[in-house]
Fold these 3 entries.
Entry 1:
Amino acid sequence: MFEAIEDPDKRGQVGIGTLIVFIAMVLVAAIAAGVLINTAGVLQSQASDTGSETQEAVANQIEVVHASGGVNESTEDGYVDSVNLTVMKSAGSNSIDLSSMTIQYTSDTTDKTLTHGGTDTAIGIETVTAGGSDYGVVSGSATSAEFATRDIAGDDGGDTELISTDDRVKITLHIAAIEAGTHNESSTGLDLANALEGEGLEGGDSATIKLVDQSGAQFSYGVTVPSTFGDKEVVEV
């Protein structure tokens, strides 16, 4: 198969060009392998993050246990000027931070995105005097642009978190201010009260409240106001 070299003057030689080509091939292969390994690591990390975020978006859910509306009788027929939602986290959900949550409020005439404003769930109007002028200000943390939260049950989460399934938090929306689009007028408190009078959801009206938590998980709740209020101060919505 192989011819024996009997002449001692004959030698097998490898040219320097062949050696350079060989080294270049090894370097190219090493660089390509490094790029492939790095790309695979990046893709694996992205896939893991995407999977975790998708799982949270699917598993993390806020459930509305109860919803009620406050009836304002300053007009002849009355209207709902505030809504309170009692919420809990669904089984299997991770902890939910309500201070990072947003609420999308949509009615026939209004579409607003609300952020967390605080933990004072009182609904009312107060007059503040500054610089010789009276300012009508919506009292409490629930305004035309913000919602308020208050812990009502459970020992883990407090006012702004749902940690265990025992936690219950009340979310308050100032519907009158949201529908009017104002919560602070540089005039008088009486003027603001007049501006909010009649603003809200009348009998038979409806609205959609979409809760979006920090992971992007969404829960929609439909608010439906009874056609008549009678002499009730609070109605189920």
Entry 2:
Amino acid sequence: MAKRTITVIKGDGIGPSIIDSALEILKAAGCDFDYDFVDAGLTALENTGELLPQTTLDAIVKNRITLKGPLTTPVGEGFTSINVTLRKKFNLYANIRPVKSFVGTKARFDNIDIITVRENTQGMYSGLGQTTSEDGSEAQAMSMITKEGAEKIVTFAYELACRENRKKVTTVHKANILKSTSGLFLKVAREVAKKYPQIESNEMIVDATCMKLVMTPEEFDVIVTTNLFGDILSDLCAGLVGGLGMAPGANIGEDAAIFEAVHGSAPDIAGKNLANPTSVILASIQMLEHLNMADTAERIRNAVADVIKSGDRTTRDLGGNHGTTDFTQAVIDRL
């Protein structure tokens, strides 16, 4: 059987060091992948004059599975977000952000286990119809939700809930005010929910969701929502388990899937062997689950959990005083 080839985008800033960490751990866990290394972001801009070179796009198409470090989009007009571009180009309609409590972090809660399923290509976040008047006194943007897009993401959330033996799906919306767009999303979600009587379905307005996530997060299991709300809520959920360093993300489409660290490229600590690689290690675990390698994924997750719980060679943000390479070795030792 031919070996699986994974496209790898190391990314900017701390990206290369945390991606190397994840790849070493995958190797130690017995994963025999081939890797196709390509560039994007500032690294690609310096090397090729483009943020997203054609060779990178071709590799994503060919290999279908990509592991990605954080990318920097230069600030200023003329540069579109690379992540948004990738999502649109490959129709990566589902963004999956699981957060789970790890004993030993400085998080305020110890019983969190929430998956946010975010529609990834529509809504206000997609940047449709952005205009500013010539005198700069007025700006507009457009939000569009389609019935097909809503149906696809809500069905994805319920199917995920079934697969993962989850008990409840909460649809998050603002249909009381955004009666057209959020209203359509909620209407479709109610229709889809009827097909899954075994799953408890409830709905919640986004502002109430924010409050409840902070006060009683144990009430949540799977959250499904639109693009902009999902962007905000998934970061809030990351804060419940110790921050973005503990949160991975998957972008799933019919023909491609990109797994990533969801935090930034942290240029201030790049090259200093200080970064916590957990986010991208957890993203590689999501990748393994997507490839039906759940046993290997579980072994790596248990090793990471044990390192954090014991405090053995943990990074500064986890209360230790070690670096990326020491943390990586601690995980490998347990494998």
Entry 3:
Amino acid sequence: MKAEAVVFDDRERVSFKHVEVPEPGEHDVVVEVEYSWISIGTESSYLRGERISGEVPYRPGDPWPFPQVAGYQKVGVATRVGSAVTHIRPGDRVFATVSRIEGMFFDYAGHVNPAVTDGRQVWKLPEGDVPAVAYAGAVLTQVGYNCGSRPPVERGDTAVVIGDGLVGQWAAQTLHARGAAVCMLGRREDRLRLAEAGGYARPLHTRAVDPAEELRSAGVSIGIVVDTVGSLETFRALQPLMKHDSHLVSAGYLGERGGIDIQTLREQEITLHTPSGWTTPRMDETIRGIAEGWLKTEPLITHRFPASEAAAAWQLITAKGSPCLGVILEWGS
């Protein structure tokens, strides 16, 4: 079965081409894709050849994982539904995660159309006024939701989110919705303004202020730190401000540098959370949050490209000082 896909042919090489996907079986849903959402952090890491799968970094001697069709999130219309799939019908607008593909280093793919996807990785979108594109990044949105839902929150607790990217934005939104007073640490004025304008976080520009000193001067006692960028140095600067029985949520990719001295957490009885991946219940809650409007995705979309121009999208994404935050590929004719 023929399809079109965004292919990482090699390190730093992106193309749009025809590919082979398997014929659908009884457990599959075929999705005519409308929008796919680029996961800039994860996909860039693959494009640079920094990892070979999941959380596994590349080491000399490993096979380079190319060609591959990266990505893991998209929305579209179900056109064919296998006989064993009961929750989706042809014509339903759906969200889908990874799909199946042939002839690539990995046998799964993200940015591919049509997408032959196991029914367990397909969700019918809720009815309502929220446009389908708002759900296109639901796996990544779920990462932020996962970060923000892990620690217990008492109303008014101070939570500090390290990172102003998408995961940081959605973690902050989730913590705010649960009653926390959220501070967001970041280096991008435009992204920090999004959090402030959205009303879910107080911005602290790390190029302008010392966040730890700023919070110390304000007499803040931190209950939660969420690290979305893998900055243990920033966490260590904040740790003296964390109260007894507080929480650290570590979600940034640390490669082989992820050493945390557990003994340094013990005196304050800091609980460490290490969210990763997705689960069906968390995806259900994330999609519900988007539908209800407290998880905001559309304001974070900064760029849209036709899928056939994905190479241009990646040129912009990887450019120094790139303005990209949420990047959508549009698959419509």
